From TrEMBL:
Pfam families: DUF2627 (PF11118). Residues 84-110 are annotated as: Disordered. The keyword Transmembrane applies. InterPro entries: Uncharacterised_YqzF (IPR020138). This is DUF2627 family protein. Keywords: Membrane, Transmembrane, Transmembrane helix. The keyword Hydrolase does not apply. The lineage of its organism: Bacteria, Bacillati, Bacillota, Bacilli, Bacillales. The chain crosses the membrane at residues 7-26, 54-74.
């Protein structure tokens, strides 16, 4: 039962940002549609753009998409599904020390 509740909570954690992103997209779409629909009216001289509605929708959209994208990225990193450019850098092993120039000249070779 405990595992079922944990999975339900995990699904809710992903669904809520998805709904927020979809609602933000709808707010941006509606503000653009209202602006262009009002511009085509015969009595409208200078249509007003709903900046508050558009910016609020953009913020909701970016937060929702960013959360879901970050979750997928860190899940894939944990399962080692990422491309090599996104994997953490591993330090190179140290280079073996080179022989000095004086040691080569002592052997008779130039």
């Amino acid at each position: 039962m405990k595992l079922l509740i944990q999975r339900l909570i995990a699904i809710l954690i992903l669904v809520i940002p998805g709904i927020a992103a979809a609602y933000g997209f709808l707010l941006m779409k509606d503000s653009l549609f209202d602006y262009f629909a009002y511009m085509g009216g015969a009595d409208a001289r200078t249509p007003d753009f709903a900046w508050g509605k558009f910016i609020g929708g953009a913020i909701l959209f970016l937060i929702g998409i960013g959360f879901i994208g970050g979750w997928i990225f860190f899940r894939d990193r944990k399962h080692n599904y990422l491309s090599s450019r996104f994997r953490p850098k591993t330090p190179r092993p140290p280079r073996p020390e080179r022989r000095e120039q004086s040691e080569r000249s002592d052997n008779g070779t130039s």
